[in-house]
Write a structure and sequence with these properties.
Length: 119
């Protein structure tokens, strides 16, 4: 098990990492963040709405499933939203430089971090 800050620092070792945060989807508030490059407080609040919208859509469709991650691909960046399975309502938000990152390796490492983080 890792603390939030230790887990966030570990995520920043991933090639292409810019910023990573742990976010409370109930309030949109940051529980911790590391890195720079974007206004992480604004991004946390905005991506809380993304998570809420996806959960509402899944409910409307009567999908009996869970979100593993949500990938948003921009021209220069990847944004990954990964709910923390053992902490309902909490998610990891990760931003990568698209030109420097290996998306598959980043998603795999983020999955490992998500499994070991202690909230």
């Amino acid at each position: 098990m890792s603390t939030i800050q230790a887990s966030l620092k570990e995520a920043l070792t991933i090639s292409g990492s810019l910023v990573v945060a742990v976010v409370d989807a109930n309030s949109g508030l940051l529980l911790g963040s590391e890195g720079s490059g974007i206004d992480i407080e604004l991004a946390a609040a905005g991506n809380t709405e993304v998570v809420r919208a996806k959960l509402a859509t899944m409910k409307s469709l009567s999908l009996d499933d869970v979100i593993e991650d949500i990938l948003i691909t921009l021209g220069k960046q990847y944004h990954i939203i990964r709910p923390i399975a053992k902490s309902k309502g909490i998610f990891l938000y990760f931003v990568l430089d698209k030109n420097k990152a290996n998306l598959a390796l980043a998603r795999r490492k983020l999955q490992e971090i998500e499994g070991s983080i202690e909230i």
